[in-house]
Amino acid sequence: MVLRAEIAIEANSLAGVASAPKRYNACCVCGWTYKGGRLKSDRRPSTERIFVQGNEAIGWGAVSAGCLHFFGYPITPQNETTEWFARELPKRGGVFVQSESETGSINMLYGAAAAGVRAMTSTSSPGWGLMLETMSHLTNAELPCVVVLVQRGGPGMGTTQHAQMDYFSTCWGGGQGGYKNIVFAPASVQETADLVQLAFYLADKYRNPVIVLTDGILGQMREPLEVRTIDFGPLPEKDWALRGTAHQKDGRRQILVCTSGHATVPYPTYLELLDHLDRKYLQMRSEVRHETYRAEDAELLIVAYGYVARVSEEAVNMARAEGLKVGLLRPITLWPFPHEVIREKAARGCKFLVVEDSLGQMIEDVKIAVQGRVEAHLLGVLARHLPTAMGMILPDRVFEEIRSLI
User: Do 401 and 326 form a contact (C-beta atoms < 8 A)?
Assistant: First the structure.
């Protein structure tokens, strides 16, 4: 089995997105620190290339984005992330707090985000369930932050091993109120670090939490990582942040709320708030990103994300070696989802095979996209090579399913 160490995003992942950043407009910079009470970078060029776990790449991406505030609670399989921040942030003058629970973590994050600093937390699936109420509050209060979710098997406490069972609760609003968050799904160690940086940029751009959704395999695997800071362009000043009257330009006291009716600005009525959020969500939909692989003439298109996308890419190679016209579409954003490109392929009669390490969640978005024109088939968690929690969906099994559909 061949799993590629690095996956480059093709040009079509940014096609038609006028506001999308130039992903490779990057300068190799690291070393964010606090100097004189302010966040600064020493801007020293670096060509450092290291060999790290995906869970550690989360940390490298965060500090490259200027994040020096982390609040978290240990949980398998993302413990290396918490350990990394506990070790590395104090060296950089940052703040690491191990909370008493995931509920504590997400609410500490609320406070830090309200102060206008770049801050984040990370967790795994059971801990994610405890964070959902405050995810809704963060969205209402328009507080930019990043949450990394390293998925494991469920439901309930499930297993401590990998899975892809949190798609619904991340992409379809797991907390109350029908809110929306951009959700990134990396497929390599390098892309994990890069998308964490992009997540901070888009969180600030839209004043909205952003989720980076990985899994236990991506978190535990090791690959080369180029440590770099990516320049996505300027952002508006955070004049809304709660920094105290002495630090406000007008000297007036600021207020941030996550409810309606307790403040006169900036949305005097509930419907004005909802109208604002609706228009913002529409703008956020322009951030859709995807990658295709050998998809131009495909008669069957696999749709997969995370570790399963890399497995599926090898299955595509196996199918092509036998002359079968099979391709891969990998959503890089799970929300917004690349419905349009799937809809276009379906209109041409292309079949779809959704491969995901669950009983079927992402397949619902694919069914929405194809609009009943063609069938969308599922190869899910029951296709793992072992019945234990250590089982994986492997290329041979995906290839077997391909042959049954063509």
Answer: no
Q: Which CATH code is given to the segment(s) 290-405?
A: 3.40.50.920
What backbone torsions phi and psi does residue 157 show, to the nearest 5 degrees? -70, -25
What are the φ/ψ torsions at residue 184 (nearest 5 degrees)? -100, 145
- 251 pLDDT band, cuts 50/70/90, is confident
For 5-22, b/e burial (b = at least 16 CB within 10 A) is eebebeeebbeeeeebbe
CATH number for domain 18-236+277-287, candidates 1.10.10.10, 3.40.50.970, 3.40.50.1580, 3.50.50.60: 3.40.50.970
Q: Which of 199, 164, 160, 194 is nearest to 183 (CA)?
A: 199
Q: Compute how many other C-beta atoms are within 10 angstroms of the C-beta atom of residue 85.
A: 29
What is the DSSP annotation of 278-290? HHHHHHHGGG--E
Query: Amino acid identity, residue 294?
Result: R
Measure the CA–CA gap between 137 and 316, rounded to whole angstroms: 42
pTM for the full model?
Answer: 0.88
Domain ranges of the chain: 18-236+277-287, 290-405
Compute the average pLDDT of residues 213-219: 97
Rounded to whole angstroms, how far apart are CA atoms 346 and 21? 29
Distance CA 212, CA 186 (A): 8
Q: Answer whether 18-236+277-287 and 290-405 agree in fold.
A: yes
Measured between alpha carbons, how far is 352 from 342 in angstroms, rounded to an integer?
Answer: 9
Taking residue 135's Cβ as centre, other Cβ atoms within 10 Å add up to 26
CB 242 within 8 A of CB 254: yes
Q: What does the angle CA 132 – CA 134 – CA 139 come to, to the nearest 5 degrees?
A: 100
* Residues 218-233 pLDDT 10s: 999 999 999 999 999 9
Indicate the burial class of 2 (C-beta count within 10 angstroms; 0-12, 13-18, 19 or more).
exposed
pLDDT, tens digit (0-9, with 9 covering 90-100), for 82-140 = 999 999 999 999 999 999 999 999 999 999 999 999 999 999 999 999 999 999 999 99
Concatenating the DSSP letter of every residue in 31-71 gives EEEEETTEEEEEEEE---EEEEEHHHHHHHHHHHTT--EEE
